[in-house]
Amino acid sequence: MKDENIVWHNHPVDKAIRSDMKKQRPCLLWFTGLSGSGKSTIAGAVEHKLALRQQHTYLMDGDNVRHRLCKDLGFSETDRVENIRRVGEVANLMIDAGLIVLTAFISPFRENRDMVRAMLGEGEFIEVFIDTPIEECERRDPKGLYKKARAGQIKDFTGIDSPYESPESAEIHILNVGVAVEDAADQVIAYLESNGYLKPVKEACHATAG
Ligand code: ADP
Fold it and tell me: 140 CA to middle of ligand 1, Å?
């Protein structure tokens, strides 16, 4: 229950000051797509490229979050929503800290992704749709999950017996089949660059060389 005696305290150091120090515009890169589509791989490659440019980031991965922050949650509809809500709230705090946050979650439902978008400020939520045909995801199947789902050992598996609602107007749309991971990651970097989220390349190169 909300306590009316709890009052928000505004501290002297705010998001603008923290972001200025990091020379970046904080945001959340929300990677969504089927299991095996390449979300974690591309998010990791993007974070690596950002680190080389001395940008400050944090990557939250679906499986990792379920080991800790959301270990009490399962895969029921209510628990999936709560999982995404918590991730959104944590990302919001990290944005307040001035970071470029990357998340890799299947997040199959449009409504849940839009819920996170609504939690954040204008231009802070960047939806990255990793669009890989299910046949290709199933062929990759690095964790053997599709095989298990086909065998009926996993229920409500996205793409098999639970739907995936594709984004209708994702800020970044990556067709991740027959594409090098590096090129896919560069598509994200190009978006950040052209929309003013990063410090200029010259300055970034200077920082790396120094
Ligand atoms: P997700 O996080 O969406 O479940 P992963 O990032 O674990 O997917 O990727 C699934 C598999 O696909 C991994 O084995 C990864 O190496 C491979 N993969 C991802 N992107 C590509 C790509 N562009 N080309 C070839 N293989 C890829």
Answer: 7
Reported as a single tens digit per residue, the pLDDT across 31-69 is 999 999 999 999 999 999 999 999 999 999 888 889 999
Ligand 1, pocket-test mutation among 30, 31, 32, 41, most atoms within 8 A of CB: 41
CB 137 within 8 A of CB 146: yes
Put simply, whether the predicted model's pTM sits higher than 0.85 gets the answer yes
CATH topology of domain 15-205: Rossmann fold (3.40.50)
107 catalytically annotated: yes
Residue of 19, 107, 166, 194 marked catalytic: 107
pLDDT at 200 over 80: no
For the sheet with 125-131, list strands across it: 57-61, 100-104, 27-32, 125-131, 172-175
Ligand 1 site, residue 140, Cβ cutoff 6 A: yes
Cβ–ligand 1 contact at 119 (below 6 Å): no
Q: Whose structure tokens read 């204008």?
A: 122
Provide the residue ranges of all domains of the chain, joining segments of one domain with +: 15-205
Longest dimension (CA), the chain: 57
- Report how far ligand 1's centroid is from the alpha carbon of 37 (Å): 6
